[in-house]
Design goal:
The chain is mainly α and 127 residues long. The protein is built from ten helices and no strands. The termini are far apart. The mean pLDDT is 83.
Length: 127
């Protein structure tokens, strides 16, 4: 246990250890559950000064049930302009997109492009 206490240097790292302890998970197990590469969580723990990607935080939120905003804040990403500018709806869209299988992601992207083109042509203004 003392080894873990020496490693904890950020709120995110502390929460990751707490979550893994509560759910009897290893860093590799948590990474794989989140759909991340096997060493992702271990890297966050070993190098806590590195900020995770927004997508990593969203995946952790998705599998742990912890609100994305809280994870982003613990990771030190909440104050970054592009993250701070995200509305709750945009965060939800990103979370839902991450959960889709690859083929559905491509289909959703096509639908989004079609909707964008429709709006650009003035279709959204008509109805």
């Amino acid at each position: 246990m003392s080894k873990k206490k020496q490693i904890i240097t950020t709120p995110l790292t502390a929460w990751l250890f707490e979550y893994m302890d509560e759910h009897d998970l290893t860093p590799t197990g948590l990474s794989l559950q989140a759909g991340l590469s096997a060493g992702s969580i271990r890297s966050l723990i070993k190098f806590p000064e590195r900020k995770p990607k927004v997508e990593t935080c969203l995946r952790l939120s998705d599998i742990t049930g912890k609100p994305a905003e809280e994870i982003l804040q613990m990771a030190g990403l909440h104050g970054i302009p592009e993250v701070a500018m995200m509305s709750p709806e945009r965060i939800e869209i990103l979370q839902r997109f991450q959960r889709l299988p690859g083929r559905l992601k491509l289909l959703l992207l096509k639908v989004a492009k079609d909707l964008d083109e429709f709006a650009q042509e003035g279709g959204a203004a008509q109805g």
